[in-house]
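FW: tagging you since you asked about this chain on Friday. Here's the raw sequence from the shared folder, copied in full. Didn't touch anything.
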Amino acid sequence: MGVAGWSRPSTAQAFATLGSSRLRLIGEARLPHRLQFQGTTVGGLSGIDYDPVGDLYYLISDDGSNFNPARFYTARIALGANRLGAPELTGVSTLRQADGSTYPAALQGIQVPDPEAIRWRASSQTLLWTSEGHALTGASPALRESRADGSLVREFPLPAMFDFQLTQGPRINLTLEGLALSPDGSHAWLAMEGALRQDGPLPTVQAPGGPCRFTKIDLDSGKVMRQIAYIPDAIPRAPLPPATRADNGVTEILMLDADRLLVLERAYMAGHGPNTANSLRLYLIDTRGGSDTQILAALQPSNHRPVAKVLLADFSAFTGPGAGPRLDRLDNTEGMCWGPRLDNGNRSLHFISDDNFGPRQITQWLTFEFFD
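HL: got it, structure written out here
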């Protein structure tokens, strides 16, 4: 039984596993710590997406205009069936407000950004991106659309449940972490990293967390189409010592097809070495499976049905001794996107980690072959 009345999913909603990973590691690349590029400090890379026509990756930094104004980078990387080259940054664009000004840092204005996810929308040649907002200044979590030069196209109206409030609403730094775009570009899904205060607790080592809301937005009208609930795992291991920091949450989502989503969960456990402090697990969900939660002010076990999830890969399988490419560590991975298809027709799947601009973390680019 979970805390605060939450329990693990019933048999009908049980977590399943395919028995073997749907991923094959192709390679790993890293960007240098606090790399200087075109007058900016590179770091905090929290989102990644790919434009196949331009063969260009977009990387958004979660720097809330502290080192430099909020921004995203473009990059290229060489990819083969068994090789990943070194990332090559090709440009940087500053994100701008409606009046053309840059976004302010926390002590300089209300609309403080915390960029987290980015998606290239080919039909409009624009970029969708999320901000977690800033509770202390009153900046609400946001979904925005910008041009490739960083200028603002529009901001989408979001349900009031995502506004910061005293006793309910999102928890600080656990808001709109994930963003997925439908294959036809008509709608987007937004994923909360953690449960709203009124919806349930955060994960513990003993129990999974309360439900995270995933919200479907029609991009033409800007209206909410649907919302489902997703249950994040319990924290895999206890921190050392036990009272120190540990967490788990949803850091990114990605559409597999018109209805199914890949969901990346990332956990951190303090006190462990670099090869065991982070946990990454990739799940598959069918968005048609959960009940619609958008009209529910608070989620209780009795008033909704969470979406079922299937484990596709535990990234610990790619660490330590073994055949083929191996990783000596996992890090704070927050971005996920499809890349070009490999020569055999399978899709490449790319991940990027957020180093928090800290010297003990790394900016890690991982690339896998995905088996449909």
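FW: The chain has a mean pLDDT of 94.
HL: agreed, and The two ends are 34 Å apart (CA to CA).
FW: great, closing this out.
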